Amino acid sequence: MHAAVVTVFLATYLLVATRRLTWLPVGRVAGALLGAAVMVAIGGLTPAQSFAAIDHDTILLLFGMMLLIVYLERGGLFARVVAGALTLARTPGQLLVLVSLLSGILSAFLVNDAVCLLLTPIVVALGVRAGLPLAPYLLAICTSANIGSAATLVGNPQNMIIGNLSGLGFGEFMALAGPPALVGLAINTGLLWLYYRRRLPAGSLPAAPDRVLAIDPLVLPVLALVTIGFLAGLHLGYTALAGALVFVVRDRRAPEAALAKVDWGLLVFFCGLFIVVQALANTGLPARVWAGAAPSQLGSPGELAAFTGLLALGSNVVSNVPMVLLAGPEIAAYADPRMAWVLLALVTTVAGNFTLLGSVANLIVAEQAAPQHELGFFEYLRFGVVSTLLVLPAVVAVLWCELRWLSG
To answer: What pTM value is reported for the model?
Structure first.
């Protein structure tokens, strides 16, 4: 039975990671669903166990954030923020820095995948109009979105899962993960500028339009109240959903148009992935691998490095969300679970910058920009490897120093 479960997991991973296999081109969502159904069919989980395997809090939070973002985008928030930032950029180099910072900061609070989806077309259109090479700006969007999203429990799906598994509050997590993520964002932005400053054209950018973009008067108050709710320790999923429902009630009409923009495929994908990973965990194989490979504690720099290396490797082998699900049950054994949980979030997120296939955010940017620029695997790799190798040790070191300062 265990061999069959492992085989199904590997087959599901192939369907998910390679996006579309020529012999079974069903895509990521159907691949996860197929893997979940086969796991139940072969007895890896009972139907009741498969329902229990789905992390409903994470699904609700992801849905609530996606619906809220739809209304914030319709209310002009993203267009206004981007327009305001672009008025500050006078040169292509300044624009690169601003795009990187904007992507990272927005992703901390509005889910990195959604930020990439909304920001990429705007930046691509500006780059085409100004005659700029698109690759540096595309790399700025996706790599900075990944790093910035590590700062909070709502920045990306794996952090949402960690929030539910760890019991850490939104404010407590942000206080620990925020400074390392900010340092990582600064390093990534500086590296982008060093890499590409000589490849960008000289001169000024075209003037931004003088027209002031209107913003829905409810957008900022609702966003502020939702953030206050997160910091106050309210249920993250229902707090995000409540923010979206303010707009639904205000509009006084059925929200079908907004619901149509929610990425239902992503929600279904995660449901299937939860089931597939739980079936693998039930075999006991991940626990045995963890026991043999992971350090028993995190009390020294060597143990910290080994823990970081294991998570980074696992995130690039099985992807970051499955890595979080498989490592989660083992974290409670550490003397300082807070450090282990925050490390799990930081490392699995930053490791997604290693290759183009390392995170969904990377693929979203590549797909959105494809008509104007094909962001190639090796074009991405030349920057992604160096960024990850510099940012990852830095964020881990900042967290280590931060926790030692708090405990001493």
So the answer is: 0.88
